[in-house]
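call fold target=DUF943 family protein
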Amino acid sequence: MKRLIIIFLTIISVVVSYRFCFPPKIIGIHHTSKHIIVMVVEYFPWTTKGKIRWWEKHRENIFNKLDFNENIYSIYIYNTHYKKDFGTDQDSDLRCFEEMDTEANCISKENRPLIIRQYNDGHTEYKTESIFRRFY
């Protein structure tokens, strides 16, 4: 029993240390249309509560940087890195941003942990995706 407690505490301390050493970092923001923003974030939170809390903490700052003040919007947050599109069938799941002046201007559409939609009546809807979804 003592060994099990030590293993459990070790796992908890590794997870907590990981989150402190690698906080979420915005890599890119793309204003793709009047009401749609695509964000590329590294080390996004794992839990639904953490994802929504992160968004609520950073929403105002992000909107101020973009000079974005729409009442109706959709925000798509991807937890990934930019890649180069080689034009093969394997790259068909990429979303590319032509305004970037680099060859690595695409992201995978698969890892989208949070979608935020704000409706005309002021209602906000959050749709989250588990990191484990990709493994089954």
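return ok
Residues 24-135 form one domain. The longest helix spans residues 2-21.
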